[in-house]
Amino acid sequence: SHAQIGLIGLGTMGGMLALNIAEKGFDIAVFNRTTKVTRSFHETAGALAPKITPCESLEALVQAIAKPRAIILMVPAGEPVDEQIAALRPYLDADDLIIDAGNANFHDTERRAAEAEKQGPRFLGSGVSGGEEGARHGPAIMGGGARSDWDRVAPILNAIAAQFEGTPCAGFMGKGGSGHFVKAVHNGIEYADMQMIAETYGVMRDGMKLGATECGEIFAKWDEGVLKSYLIEISGKVARTADPETGAPMLDIILDRAGQKGTGRWTAIEAQHLAAPIPVIEAAVMARNLSSRLEARAEGEDLFGTGPEALPDGALSAEDLEHAMIAGKILCYAQGFELLRAANAPFDWALPLPEIALVWRDGCIIRSAMLDDMASALSDAPDRNLMFAPFFADLLKAHHGALRKVVSTAVAHGLAVPALSMALSYFDTMRTARGTANMIQGQRDFFGAHGFERTDREGKDFHGPWAM
Ligand code: 6PG
How many other CB atoms are there within 10 angstroms of residue 402's CB atom? Predict the structure, then answer.
């Protein structure tokens, strides 16, 4: 028993993570339910094979790992995780540690952490982001559970994580399900970033009549500026790739129906539970859901006439879109971080917002140049909404006009831009000291005597002289 860590589940992500661990010099024991997969994984591990012990039973895996053991689970989220924990438990000691590195719903992680407290073994829920490439060469890691358990495996997790200028993109988020909650918010932001990019692509394609390659070139240019990020970079690549069979741009032959495993939806659901406003993320989830209504959309086009109209020449420039995207992105991230903050009291967490921004700087899907500035802004004033941080407030002052121009132009020509629209409405609401909820309060008092506060007097329970 010499392995420093074990890993169960040699699917794409699990296999890549195991190779990453071996490459960083750790001895690792691996197990997959299907023995053939375990064997071929080891056979194809090349120079890393000597660091990897392939195990053909759970018992063999447990025996191969040095005590106190640490075992990473990389099995599909949901029931398979519970089944795997139950199957392992008889072989493990109370101070052995199971690390769930899949995309768990953080409520499940909370429950598993509580069960582990009662009956052992130890349990850490770790969000891991970065897709295949990240798992292989450096993901971002968001850990949750007991600090002492995190500290025990931190040397390995820090070593395999992406490194941003020498700092590992791995961090301890707090107890229970906090790591997986932070990962869910990451995915919500991921959905929103992707949606806003898709919307600017739609304006270019349908409004400005640009071809996919031209759109790709514009994204590639954005990737050299404030918007520099993995998602902009890959969007540029996606748009410039041709289908080898037909020669047509890939984008032109991909069906416009988006898949989703549900993490973005969990974020929106949780935000509603917490009464945290994240309209850009909610719009992105809505847009994915609506994208699947292909037939209804075709029926709508027949009935109401083609949606998007071409824009008049010069109505919008690529630069307008870039600036709108900058404003939209800031507003979306501001909402995401506000959601993280809103979870602290109800879950009794103290989520380290500046550190979360640091962890997201590299390795994860939403990695971007802006996150470094967000980390600085959040460490200057951890309790301030990011949109009010001087650096981002200045960017918003410079670019909210472009966001308004893009949204209003798109709306006027039938181009759907739900996420960008929500970003703009959030911005407008957040800079309107006197809003319109006085009308809501008047209505509530009228039909239900719910009472209201007054602008001119102290007190909570005033009523109107409503004529019935
Ligand atoms: C990551 C991603 C990843 C996610 C997939 C698919 O951070 O590496 O968020 O965890 O599962 O990208 O997500 P959807 O199927 O929900 O789009």
Answer: 21
Active site includes 118? no
Asked whether residue 105 is marked as a ligand-binding residue, the answer is no
The pick from 103, 133, 281 for probing ligand 1's pocket by mutation, whose C-beta has the most ligand atoms within 8 angstroms, reads: 103
Among residues 323, 340, 327, the alpha carbon closest in space to that of 385 is found at: 340
The correct CATH number of 184-430 out of 1.10.1040.10, 3.30.1330.30, 3.60.9.10, 3.40.50.1220 is 1.10.1040.10
Of the candidates 110, 183, 199, 338, the residue annotated as catalytic is 183
For the chain, where do the domains classified as CATH 3.40.50.720 start and end? 5-176
Asked whether the whole model's pTM tops 0.90, one would answer yes
Q: Are strands 70-73 and 52-55 parallel, antiparallel or unpaired?
A: unpaired
Residue 426 marked as a ligand binder? no
**For the chain, how far is it from start to end, CA to CA, in angstroms?**
81
261 is in an annotated binding site: yes
Q: Whose CA is nearest to atom 17 of ligand 1?
A: 260
Ligand 1 pocket check for 267: Cβ under 6 Å:
no
Residue with CA nearest ligand 1 atom 7: 129
Q: Show Cβ contacts of residue 326 under 8 Å, excluding neighbours closer than 6 positions.
A: 226, 227, 395, 399, 402
pLDDT in tens, the chain (468 residues): 799 999 999 999 999 999 999 999 999 999 999 999 999 999 999 999 999 999 999 999 999 999 999 999 999 999 999 999 999 999 999 999 999 999 999 999 999 999 999 999 999 999 999 999 999 999 999 999 999 999 999 999 999 999 999 999 999 999 999 999 999 999 999 999 999 999 999 999 999 999 999 999 999 999 999 999 999 999 999 999 999 999 999 999 999 999 999 899 999 999 999 999 999 999 999 999 999 999 999 999 999 987 799 999 999 999 999 999 999 999 999 999 999 999 999 999 999 999 999 999 999 999 999 999 999 999 999 999 999 999 999 999 999 999 999 999 999 999 999 999 999 999 999 999 999 999 999 999 999 999 999 999 999 999 999 986
Distance CA 26, CA 5 (A): 8
* Domain 5-176 fold: Rossmann fold (3.40.50)
Active site residue 183: yes
The closest residue, in CA terms, to atom 14 on ligand 1 is 260
The vertex-108 CA angle with 103 and 113, nearest 5°, equals 105
